[in-house]
Amino acid sequence: MQVGLVQRYTDSSRTQRFALTERAAIGLFECDSCHHVIPIQQDPALKAAIELVKSHLSGHGMTEQEITLSSHGICQDCNRSGNK
């Protein structure tokens, strides 16, 4: 059995969806126009930002179990085609 093959996310209409997990992905971007889901690749600056969130939560007595990076907007293809 393999663990971590799919990632659950909530789309803009609050529907639970699943996408194949990209090993190098740190989160997901969903286009509000075409609803394409694009992995957000690992980046040192993003990793540092997530560590900052963890530190902030810990400083307030909270222990996170999962931090999920989710972004919504218009993808590059829809921006180019004017499909907003």
Structure overview:
The chain is α+β, with helices and mostly antiparallel strands and 84 residues long. The chain has a single domain (6-79), classed as Dna Ligase, domain 1 (2-Layer Sandwich). The protein has 2 helices and 5 strands; from the N terminus they run ββββαβα. β3 (25-31) and β4 (37-41) form a beta hairpin. It is elongated, with a radius of gyration of 15 Å. It starts with 5 loop residues before the first strand and ends with a helix.
Q: What order do the helices and strands follow? A: EEEEHEH
CATH class category: Alpha Beta
Beta-strand share of residues: 25-35%
CATH architectural group: 2-Layer Sandwich
- Oligomeric nature of the chains: single chain
What does the overall shape look like?
elongated
Counting DSSP H or I runs of 4 or more residues, the number of helices is: 2
Structural class: alpha+beta
User: Would you count the extended β strands for me?
Assistant: 5
Mean pLDDT: 82
Protein name: Fur family transcriptional regulator
Organism: Tatumella morbirosei
InterPro entries: Fur_C, WH_DNA-bd_sf
